[in-house]
Structures are given as C-alpha cells and as structure tokens.
Amino acid sequence: MSKLVERFLNYVNFDTESNGESETCPSTAKQLKLAEFLKNEMIEIGLEEVTLDGNGYLMGTLPSNTEKVVPTIGFLAHMDTAPAFSGKDIKPNIVEYTGGDIVLNEEKNIILSPTDFPELENYIGQTIITTDGTTLLGADDKAGIAEILTAMEYLIGHPEIEHGKIRIGFTPDEEIGRGANLFDVEKFGAEFAYTIDGGKLGEVEYENFNAASAKIEIIGRSVHPGTAKNQLVNALQIGIELHNLLPVNERPEFTEGYEGFYMLNSMNGDISNAKLDYIIRDHDMTKFIEKKEFITSVVDLLNKKYNNVIELKLTDSYFNMREKIEEKIEVFEIARDSMIELGINPIVEPVRGGTDGARLSFMGLPTPNIFTGGHNFHGQYEYIPVLSMEKAVEVVIQISKNIVKK
User: Largest Cα–Cα distance in the chain?
Assistant: First the structure.
C-alpha cells in the first residue's frame, strides 16, 4: 500500500463531522484530535514552524531551498466532514474496479452503479476507494490533506528540486461555511494559495457560488382538531405552503453549471413550532440578491396571511471569488499550466459549492481550487480513484517547481 493511501485511510478513521448549530470554533472538539495527529505527522516528516491554535487552525512551513527570490505560496485543505451524512466509523473498501456495479453493502442492498453514476466507468482497470454504504468516505477533504502532505514529504526527500517557501494550512469547519472565519492570513504569510478540495481529476476552479443560509421559524397554535376551526394555526402546514411557493425548477436536482438554487436542508417540528433551513446559491450576484429578495417576499406574503407567525434569518456565507482571482489571474494560470505539463486535461468550470478559498480570496489571499480526485461527496456513494489522488500530488509538486521558474 502506498504512503498516500495509507495516510488517507488513517485520516478517515477520525470522526471530524462539523456542526452548524454549535457556536464554538472548531464546532466539534473531535476535529482537534485529527489536528493533533496531523501536527505530529507534519513535524515527523520535517516541516517547520508547525503551529496549532485553540480554534483548530494548523499551519506549517517547508522552507525555501533556492537562492532565487520567489513568492511564498500555500496549500490548504479542511479537516471536517459534512454533517449532511454520517462520518463516524467509516469503513473504506479498496476495490480493483473491472466495470459494472459495486456492491457497497449486500445486507442493505446499497449499490454504487454506473447506471446512476456514469463517470464510474471512466475508472475501469483502476483502484478506487469506496464506502461500505453506511457512511460518507471523507475524501472531502481528507484526500486533500493526504495529497498535500505526501507532496511535501516528496519535496523534503528530493532536495534537488528547487522550490520557494511553502506554507501548509489545515482548517476546521469548512463544511458549515466557517473554515476561514478565524484564519490568520497575515500569520500564514503566503502571497497566494490553493485549496486542494475539488472533485474529479483535472478540476481547477476560480469561480464559486455566492452563498447564503435562510433559517425560518414558524410559530403555530395547537388546538384540538375537534374544535380547530378558525383557531388552529398549523406551523408544519405553513412550512409546506412556504416551500411550495419557491420555484420547483430552482432546486439543485434540476440545475447545473451556472444555475443557482434554493435547497431545503431540513424541516422539523410540530403543529406549534416548525423550523426550515435553506441554503441559497447563485454564481451571479444580481441573481443571488434576487433569490434572497424572493424568499423574503414569500415570508412577507405568508406573514400577512397568517398574522406574522414567521421569522426569517438570512445570513451570507461567502461570495464568488472570481473577481478577486481575476485581479491576479496568473495564480490560476500557474495551476492550469502545471496540469497541462503533466498531461492532465484542465477542467475549468464553476464550483457548484464553496471552498475556504472563496472567503480567503476576499481576505487578501487569492486561492483557486484544485481537484482531489473524489466523486459523490457528502454521501454513501462517495468514492475516489487512487490514480487521481496520485495525480493531485504531482500537481502540488509541479506548482511548487514552477513558482521557481516563473
């Protein structure tokens, strides 16, 4: 087993699920267990200036080995996994894929099939790592961590390869939109950076969604159904009515490319109290604002109908980093050209999500996003081809080399 795969399998043993309801940083203390493990590993492989603060931000340095004056660059990944699906007791399977369906869990009849996920057939003849069908895998973004550290270990072991100063950063709580909240850009000290947090082989991105959350609480009135006429106010029913007023064709399952959406993440409660949590996404700022205005107008309409029983809390999460990257487009071009030199076809398309790099770009650290190699993040059908992971390592090394050449 390669060191890269061994690292990745070690990291997914750590339950690092973040929690959007928590107000602490990190949002879950268990993320610190992986951070401590990574801190020790970074020191062991020879990285310097390794620091871990109380909020779970881990940084380290590979010192420059060239006399040339070159910019300090950074590579970043996040330690948490998404709360959308369980990341506890992950049991990864290593599969030599020969085509067709992969039975992830025979007992529960959970099958990873190219019928549902056609890209799977691109990896016939390759080794892929899957879940056992009961958890997510955690390639988002423990694959990114493994790839960065494997690249750094390679550079340390090959001092003949010239490179400038490289900073490494691992963050908590990216999956709940807070990964950059307490990131110290000045302390990190890089002129630009790359998140290794993308999907399939070749992805390189400098556009992402503008993002907001919409938390809605509905206060109803519970009355015995036998005497409910003109008295009962059913919070759940109002929630359903609200949801049905949002455009059906602007849900994620009906959108692609630059198309934005409203997504209902959760709905729970009873007659007297119901809560709905949405995320709102769009690449275009004007359309993003319109989406926020529309959901606000829906709430206003129903408040008039039901006498002000709905409270809406809209919170911006991050914005499209395109305008910031375009100001220093050579940062993106270095990554793209490095892939081309390695025979990797760059796939330049908008991120239908967000990365720490979006926030960091607005904080003065231009940070495009590069693939990890993974597919189907945030669920039980997640998988990652080993060859794609190895290519990500090569890209990190190639970028490090090319900074000296520029």
Answer: 84
Which residue numbers are catalytic? 80, 174
pLDDT of residue 201: 98
Reported as a single tens digit per residue, the pLDDT across 90-133 is 999 999 999 999 999 999 999 999 999 999 999 999 999 999 99
How distant, in Å, are the alpha carbons of 92, 253, 276, 313, 360 from that of 65?
38, 49, 53, 51, 27
191: Cβ contacts below 8 Å, ≥ 6 apart = 71, 72, 73
The pTM for the full model equals 0.88
The residue to which tokens 């660059």 are assigned: 73
Distance in angstroms (rounded) separating the CA atoms of residues 114 and 102 = 9
Dihedral angle sign, alpha carbons of residues 242, 248, 250, 256: positive
- Containing 74, the helix (H) or strand (E) segment is strand 73-78
Q: What is the mean pLDDT of residues 156-179?
A: 96
Written as six digits, the tokens of 57 are: 């931000």
DSSP H/E element including 62 = strand 58-62
Report DSSP letters for 200-244, one per residue: STTBEE----EEEEEEEEEE-B---GGG-TTT-B-HHHHHHHHHH
The residue count for the chain: 406
d(CA 91, CA 381): 13
Structure tokens at 106: 């025979």
Instruction: Report all structural domains of the chain as residue ranges with CATH numbers, in order of start.
Output: 3-207+320-405 (3.40.630.10), 210-318 (3.30.70.360)
Q: Is the dihedral of CA 136, 142, 147, 153 positive or negative?
A: negative
Closest CA to 18 of 293, 356, 283, 373: 356
* Three-point CA angle 286, 324, 144, nearest 5°: 105
